[in-house]
Amino acid sequence: MSAQKTYTIRCPKCGHAQKVELYDSINVAQQPELKTALFENRLNRVLCESCEASFRIDKPLLYHDADRNILIHWMPDTAVSREEILDEFDRSMDELRKALPEDMEPPRVRLVFTRAELVELVFIMEAGMEERVVEYIKYTIHTQNMNRVPPADKHLLLNVQDSTAEELLFAVQNAATFELEEVLRYPRAAYQSVREMYRKNPDEFTELFPGPYISARAALMDENRENDEE
Q1: How far is it, in rounded angstroms, from Cα 138 to Cα 173?
Q2: Distance between CA 105 and CA 168 in Å, rounded?
């Protein structure tokens, strides 16, 4: 079941406060129209009663697709740090494990921090691709093109829909303006080779991207911070 809750929201344009119904979770297997609303940037969008400004509320959202066994928690890092979010996520998962019977494995919940990451991950999982393999490829693209796509300034987003049987398309997004600046092409045959590496030795990939937040950009920025501190 999808879940909604009433929130008091203040318009960012005129300051008017109003009560609105926002989704805390969506079950797209039961309500596929909510998936469409998410992808079309209409989910949790508010129309101000006073000035008629339209704006999106970015808040924690659980995306659930029971038919495809997809469970993703979007926790925007606009109010608190990512470290605090990760700590809270770990505590929530610990509580879930304790609440489940001992012989039952808890569901695997992915974690993302932005709407773009959520949409990208849904497409990746629906396509049957390995998320750690995709992030490993992003890691490689960043490290081999630091001047062109520095991780501090650029996001890499896999465009699953427009990728072909011959190549994967990665959109380069400006981290400050969110504008899409160019498209980088990566041979799908190379993806298949990396996927075979992952299947033979998943520990190497898990060590690089332990989760629950799996991100090449975050891993590289953490490495850069550690190098700066040394």
Answers
A1: 13
A2: 34
Q: Measured between alpha carbons, how far is 197 from 204 in angstroms, rounded to an integer?
A: 9
Cβ–Cβ < 8 Å for 9, 18: yes
Sheet holding 167-174, edge to edge: 154-159, 167-174, 180-187
Using CA atoms, how far apart are residues 157 and 131, in angstroms rounded to an integer? 12
Helices 131-144 and 216-229: crossing angle, nearest 10°? 50
Best CA proximity match to 222, nearest among 77, 83, 110: 83
pTM for the whole thing? 0.89
Q: How many CB atoms lie within 10 A of CB 228?
A: 7
Ordered alpha helix ranges (H), 24-81:
32-39
Q: Tell me the sheet residues that pair with 21.
A: 6
Unique residue bearing structure tokens 């959202």:
61
pLDDT per position as a tens digit, 90-148: 888 787 777 777 777 777 889 999 999 999 999 999 999 999 999 999 999 999 999 99
* Helix (H), strand (E), coil (C) string for 78-122: CCCCHHHHHHHHHHHHHHHHHHCCCCCCCCCCEEECCHHHHHHHH
- CB contact at 8 A, 161 and 39: no
Going by DSSP bridges, is the β-strand pair 61-65/17-27 parallel, antiparallel, or unpaired?
parallel
